[in-house]
Write a structure and sequence with these properties.
The protein has helices at 27-53, 55-66, 70-84, 87-90, 95-105, 112-124, 131-143. With 160 residues, it is mainly α.
Length: 160
């Protein structure tokens, strides 16, 4: 080494400080983690509640698939409707009014063949299993939306 302080032989690398550790987390990150955890818990709770609320739908669809006759399928439809809406309102519906209520709450009109089987056909020959009725019942059970008030204005006279 030369005693000259400006000599290049005296140069050394710059001493860098150690990198800043990410742990422990700052207070703001703890708030973000808590907010996300709370949001996940709320979403999971709502999904679980929806799953529990739709248990009657899953059971009804399984019964429709196991049913061996139209009489059983119409019975499953009526029991499902009683679970979903006011018992005094739905329990008194039959024939055309029942089909109108199913149309109003099922987001789709009741096909004529199905309406005939629901209204009159099950009393004539209820031992058969109509594929159209199975399809309609399954679709109605999955998609129906019923107001909890049991609004009687939904029922109207069917025009043929």
């Amino acid at each position: 080494m030369t005693p000259d302080p400006a000599s290049l032989e005296n140069l050394r690398d710059i001493a860098e400080p150690p990198p800043v550790s990410w742990w422990p987390l700052a207070l703001g990150w703890w708030f973000v983690i808590a907010f996300l955890a709370f949001g996940c818990i709320v979403i999971l709770y709502r999904l679980w509640c929806r799953w529990q609320a739709n248990a009657y739908r899953r059971a009804a669809i399984a019964e429709v698939q196991r049913a061996s006759s139209d009489v059983e399928i119409v019975g499953v439809l009526k029991r499902t409707a009683l679970c979903a809406d006011n018992r005094t309102h739905v329990g008194s519906l039959s024939g055309e009014n029942w089909c109108d209520w199913l149309s109003a709450t099922g987001r789709a009109p009741v096909p004529n063949e199905v309406a005939d089987r629901i209204s009159v056909g099950v009393y004539r020959d209820g031992s058969a299993r109509t594929p159209a009725l199975v399809e309609f019942a399954t679709r109605w059970i999955r998609q129906h939306q019923v107001s909890r008030q049991g609004d009687a204005s939904i029922v109207k006279t069917r025009e043929r």
